[in-house]
Amino acid sequence: RALIFPFLIRQGKPTPFFTFLLALLFCIYNGYLQGRSLSNYATYPSGWLKDPCFIAGFIGWLIGMAINIHSDHILRNLRKPGETGYKIPRGGMFEYVSGANFFGEILEWFGFALACCTIESLAFALCTLFILGSRAKQHHQ
């Protein structure tokens, strides 16, 4: 998402390169930490993929990803070419929460944390909640 979304935006304020670079480095580092945690330290019983905890987490991750992708699509198509100004998004989860894209991403990471059951995945889910939760509150206001 950090790489794709900025290139899909048709208009609006450009993303500063330094901000893009920091986001990219953060995503690479987090991916490394999550991957290393899962490949080197996490141990799972042989039937883990059938465990209700894994299944619920995977479904949460999948639903969160679908919400996130659909919400980003709505946001990218808010304005017609040449239009400026603020518009309130409608449709999808935006009918229930004002920051549907943030909600979807938070749900993704908590689903991931539940499926993995590692302290590292839970830590990142909580960080995502606090960071995106505060951004969602700002957007709502």
Automatic annotation (TrEMBL):
Annotated keywords: Differentiation, Endoplasmic reticulum, Lipid metabolism, Membrane, Microsome, NADP, Oxidoreductase, Transmembrane, Transmembrane helix
Membrane-crossing residue ranges in chain numbering: 15-32, 53-71, 109-132
Gene Ontology cellular component annotations, sorted alphabetically: endoplasmic reticulum membrane
Ranges of residues in domain 3-oxo-5-alpha-steroid 4-dehydrogenase C-terminal: 14-141
Acyltransferase recorded as keyword: no
Protein location: Endoplasmic reticulum membrane; Microsome membrane
PROSITE patterns according to UniProt: S5A_REDUCTASE
InterPro entries, per the entry: 3-oxo-5_a-steroid_4-DH_C (IPR001104), SRD5A/TECR (IPR039357)
Family, as annotated: Belongs to the steroid 5-alpha reductase family.
GO molecular function: 3-oxo-5-alpha-steroid 4-dehydrogenase activity
Membrane topology, from the record: Multi-pass membrane protein
Name of protein: S5A1 dehydrogenase
PANTHER family (alphabetical): 3-OXO-5-ALPHA-STEROID 4-DEHYDROGENASE, 3-OXO-5-ALPHA-STEROID 4-DEHYDROGENASE 1
BP GO terms, sorted: cell differentiation; steroid biosynthetic process
